[in-house]
Amino acid sequence: MAATLRALEFAAHDPQGLERFWSGLLGREIDDTGFRLRFVKSDEPKTRQNQMHFDLTSQSLDDQRRTVAKALGLGGRHIDIGQLPDEKHVVLADPEGNEFCVIEPGNDFLADCGFVGAVASDGSQEVGYFWSEALDWPLVWDRDQETAIRSPRGGPKITWGGPPFTPKTGPNRLRFVLDGPLAEIDRLVSLGAARLGPQENGRVEMADPDGNEFSVVVLG
Question: How much is the pLDDT for 29?
């Protein structure tokens, strides 16, 4: 039995405020992700670019402008992460600095994925293979060390961009939360995950083969 992806968890200084931003920006579209967004209190500062971010899609240039304006009105801001002047996507950050992109119209890769087109991740080809096996989601892209998986039920893709990688200097602010039976812990380890500690409050902390933290809520 494969684990189930239940949530993408944000570490937040103000969980309620960050939840208001994302629910205001995504609205009902948040249900189309196939998993929840969860916000938990953390006092740790944000010191680097996140390992994961959302790619939001646009149906037209006007639609892209509306999404950007809505995000800015909710407390987001423009940021520079080294994008080139001729790139047509818009890079923004939420009120706590978590990066996300509003993709230009006509992006074929995300064409059928809905408003939340992708959870775009910094990571290796091997970690893409790991998550495909862990979640039992098929690979929908595997080329030039870039990988992507997608739930058989649809929704956004989860992508890994291959090298070069942003150095990991501390715990990630965004992490996956899975549900699964206790036996699933051993299966994930056999696939290349590492267990980071004992089960506490029904939850086991783990890391994928790239060292990215994730949690498993043990069922039963």
Answer: 62
Distance CA 32, CA 114 (A): 7
Q: Give me the pLDDT at residue 30, please.
A: 64
151 neighbors 108 (Cβ within 8 angstroms): no
The answer to whether residue 207 sits within a structural domain is no
What token pair was written down for 138? Answer: 């098929």
The pair of three-digit structure tokens given for residue 123, joined into one six-digit string:
């990571």
- The reported pLDDT for the residue numbered 32 is 63
**C-alpha distances in angstroms, 16 versus 23, 39, 56, 125?**
10, 8, 22, 35
Listed residue (58, 16, 81, 9) closest to 38, CA to CA: 9
Alpha-carbon distance 6 to 35, whole Å? 5
The stretches in the chain having pLDDT less than 70 are 1, 28-33
Q: Is 2 helix (H, G, I), strand (E, B) or coil?
A: coil
Report yes or no on 218 lying in a domain.
no
Longest Cα–Cα distance of the chain, Å, equals: 52
Q: Which domain holds residue 99?
A: 4-176
- DSSP characters over 37-68: EEEEE--PPP-S--SEEEEE--SSHHHHHHHH
